[in-house]
Amino acid sequence: MMSDIEKFIALESEIKPYKKILAQAADVILNENVSKYPIFIVHQQEIEMGVLLIEGGKDFRWSINASTLEEFVSKEIVFMEKAKDFISTYKDPEMYLCLFVLSDLGAQFIYLPREFNS
Prior knowledge:
The structure is a single chain. By secondary structure, the protein is α+β, with helices and mostly antiparallel strands. It has one domain (4-113). It has four helices and five strands. The protein has helices at residues 4-15, 19-31, 69-74, 83-89, and strands at residues 38-43, 51-54, 63-68, 96-103, 106-113. The chain has a five-stranded mixed sheet with strand order 2-3-1-4-5. A hairpin with a 2-residue loop joins strand 4 and strand 5.
């Protein structure tokens, strides 16, 4: 059985080929002033949040939707009174991708460094 750390490393490895797409989507969200806080929802079930970027299938078992802190607040995933706390811990979106991962570990925010060697 895999430990939580092993599961995180496996997830990071699975997402790696898609980091460039996620970074481009984050740039659009930032540059179009949609939000200063892009969040990518990584999931394996149907969800009604954000915009589907990557649909899971046989080669990649995760689907990824692009969303924002504002949507998370409006859907009460992040409560309004906790938004400031979230913002204070949110890592620079120019350097990191913020993932909200829904898995057998539960729901958690994870930050992955962007890829800069392309």
